[in-house]
Design goal:
11 helices, 2 strands, two-stranded antiparallel sheet, elongated, MetI-like fold, mainly alpha
Amino acid sequence: MTTPVDFPKQSSAFVVTEIEAPPLSLGNLTWRRFRRHKMAIFGGIVLILLTLYSFGGAFFVTEKYSNFTNTKERLQPPSAQHFFGTDTVGRDIFARTVYGGQISILIGITAAIVEVAIGILIGALAGYFGGKIDAVLMRFTEAMLNMPQLLLLIVMSKFFSGKISNINILGRELSGSVIVIIFIIGLTSWPYLARIVRAEFLSIKEREFILAARATGTPNWEIIFKHILPNSIAPIVVSATLGVAGAISLEAYVSFLGMGVRAPTATWGNMLENAYRYIESAYWLWFFPGMLIVLITLSINFLGDGLRDALDPRSRTV
């Protein structure tokens, strides 16, 4: 008869209790992916600094000073009195970049909002309902894509810019051309986003939870806006972010050609309007506003790349 073998009892000091880590939330997982993208972090920091420069600078210089002309000090190089020099009529370029940045950022954000609203509406209707609605909306979208956006923007801004009077917002008098540029950019930039949204809706609407919602009699508008759209938010956020940079660049293009935002409102783009005449003799006319446009465009693009990687559900990087 075998006797049971007594194994020595382990001391409680050597007992290791395995503690399971709590699962990461979607927000925490997205942040962990995003912070691994160094250029996106850099872009976010630069974007914050440029925003502080544009809106915080208003506490140090006034808009009246930014529009003050003094021909005796025209084309002065950067100095302790004028950090960025003066322009062709003696206005301080530093002060104008502060208030011009506010309008450039405003144009970028509001034009992107218009673009996203139209793109989501058309893409969602085409992708969800399909059939004739999809065919009509997509043919219209393709027609818009075939139109040269810059040429269309120049023609429409030339036609409408003189028909809207100046407006007053929060004590600031803005040229009516600001509203024209915002809506024209938004109304000509949505086709790419509409095709992205349509593709997402075509994919998601065939999944089990959408079929179950239909089977239970859920209204179409609720399925679109409460079930499918939240699951398509990642590409929309990325597209909207890049749309801000695109709108700022487009405004700079048309303003450089003399058909963008008009006086008395300053933007980084219209500060470059006559700078090409002084490329060698007065570099500060184009260097500072041009550098700010490059910085904000690059920072937004880096941020958009980081958001694309962080919001990608197929990413395995944590």
